[in-house]
From TrEMBL:
<dbReference type="InterPro" id="IPR004045">
    <property type="entry name" value="Glutathione_S-Trfase_N"/>
</dbReference>
<dbReference type="Pfam" id="PF00043">
    <property type="entry name" value="GST_C"/>
</dbReference>
<dbReference type="Pfam" id="PF13409">
    <property type="entry name" value="GST_N_2"/>
</dbReference>
<keyword id="KW-0808">Transferase</keyword>
<feature type="domain" description="GST N-terminal">
    <location>
        <begin position="1"/>
        <end position="82"/>
    </location>
</feature>
<feature type="domain" description="GST C-terminal">
    <location>
        <begin position="88"/>
        <end position="213"/>
    </location>
</feature>
<dbReference type="GO" id="GO:0016740">
    <property type="term" value="F:transferase activity"/>
</dbReference>
<dbReference type="InterPro" id="IPR036249">
    <property type="entry name" value="Thioredoxin-like_sf"/>
</dbReference>
<protein>
    <submittedName>
        <fullName>Glutathione S-transferase</fullName>
    </submittedName>
</protein>
<dbReference type="InterPro" id="IPR010987">
    <property type="entry name" value="Glutathione-S-Trfase_C-like"/>
</dbReference>
<dbReference type="InterPro" id="IPR036282">
    <property type="entry name" value="Glutathione-S-Trfase_C_sf"/>
</dbReference>
<dbReference type="InterPro" id="IPR004046">
    <property type="entry name" value="GST_C"/>
</dbReference>
<dbReference type="InterPro" id="IPR040079">
    <property type="entry name" value="Glutathione_S-Trfase"/>
</dbReference>
Length: 235
């Protein structure tokens, strides 16, 4: 049985896991969750009681959660060296470092930018939280901008699971209209533009938007509904 990636919309960080699967060439299916209307779905809650995406239903019926773990899992199953580097190598250490930064320090800035009202009450307090979160995201962009001065990809001279995840989260600055990436962080913008031209990234956009899924998905075998997913979950 092939794994099933449960991904969230809209604007989910699970976008990166779709890209990684598409790049890997591994067989997989997708299950779409609307994070605005299906958070309380019984099957989704069984799959991940924390009600977060991504979540990966494994062939044995168990569920793996958290982007860091799922991306490392995909890289470990992909043909050797395709999405990562040799275990214990300096390049793999740097890949782990970059991915950890993206899924913690960088991702963590965005919650208050999407929904400041979830953190504090009152317009002035929300504006303050928003400004502080923007400053945190700016530090993240600046860090990546500096690293890209001597490289085309985030780590090791090739697209990896870090770039896949980056495609999903670095877009948020433009999506929320809180950064002009082309003007403020031109190297970040250039990397995002290269990624946007990749068929796997186009496939991930189609999956998010609910459009027909065609080329670019690698070993994609089809979508499954949440109700269909329930029969695959381990008891």
């Amino acid at each position: 049985m092939e794994p099933i990636l449960i991904y969230g919309v809209p604007h989910g960080c699970s976008f990166g896991s779709i890209v990684a699967f598409a790049w890997s060439g591994l067989p997989y299916r997708l299950a779409r969750v609307d994070m605005l209307s299906e958070l309380e779905d019984a099957v989704f809650t069984r799959a991940n009681p924390l009600r977060l995406t991504p979540a990966l239903l494994l062939p044995n019926g168990e569920v793996l959660t958290e982007s860091f773990a799922i991306l490392q899992h995909v890289a470990s199953k992909a043909p050797e060296g395709k999405l990562a580097f040799a275990p214990g190598s300096p390049q793999q250490d740097r890949l782990n470092e970059m991915l950890a930064f993206l899924v913690t320090g960088f991702h963590g800035a965005w919650g208050p930018l999407f929904s400041p009202f979830k953190y504090v009450d009152g317009d002035e307090a929300q504006k303050s939280v928003h400004a502080k979160a923007r400053a945190r995201a700016a530090r993240g962009y600046a860090h990546i901008e500096a690293l890209l001065a001597d490289r085309d990809w985030l780590v090791g001279g090739k697209p990896t699971i870090a770039d896949a995840y980056f495609a999903g989260v670095a877009r948020w600055g433009a999506d929320l209209q809180v950064f002009d990436l082309a003007a403020e962080y031109p190297r970040v913008h250039a990397l995002l533009q290269r990624l946007e031209a990749d068929p796997a990234v186009g496939f991930a956009h189609d999956a998010e938007e609910g459009r027909p899924l065609g080329e670019g998905g690698g070993g994609f075998l089809g979508q499954v509904s949440l109700s269909e997913l329930g029969g695959r979950l381990a008891a």
